[in-house]
Amino acid sequence: MSVLAASKTLSFTEIRNLLQMTDGNLSMHIKTLQEAGYICVEKEMGGRKARTMYSLTSEGEQAFRRYVELLDQIVEFTKKKP
Questions:
Q1: Does pTM top 0.85 for this prediction?
Q2: How far, CA to CA in Å, does 70 sit from each of 73, 75, 77?
Q3: What confidence score (pLDDT) does residue 37 get?
Q4: For residue 56, with 0-12 CB atoms within 10 Å meaning exposed, 13-18 middle and 19 or more buried, which class applies?
Q5: Is 36 helix (H, G, I), strand (E, B) or coil?
Q6: In the predicted model, what is the mean pLDDT of the chain?
Q7: Domains of the chain: total
Q8: Domain enclosing residue 68, as ranges
Q9: Strand 49-56's sheet: what is its strand order?
Q10: pLDDT in tens, 11-66
Q11: Torsion, CA 31, CA 33, CA 39, CA 43, rounded to 10
Q12: What is the domain-level CATH number for residue 67?
């Protein structure tokens, strides 16, 4: 989610390389996020191969924003502890 939040769209290969994940592991994460309605998957034809592109949906952007806000709250709470 974070790499897609930082980029408009990324290909499977770009995400895999950025996160240093295996194809199988990334595929499972993508499937889960797609089923949740958080990412959009589009196939592009280019040259001899189809290229799969991923982007966040509006719902995915909102969910990611809520997650970051929660993390901010946890960090602030932790800073206040003696």
A1: no
A2: 5, 9, 11
A3: 97
A4: buried
A5: coil
A6: 93
A7: 1
A8: 2-80
A9: 10-11, 49-56, 39-46
A10: 999 999 999 999 999 999 999 999 999 999 999 887 788 889 999 999 999 999 99
A11: -10
A12: 1.10.10.10
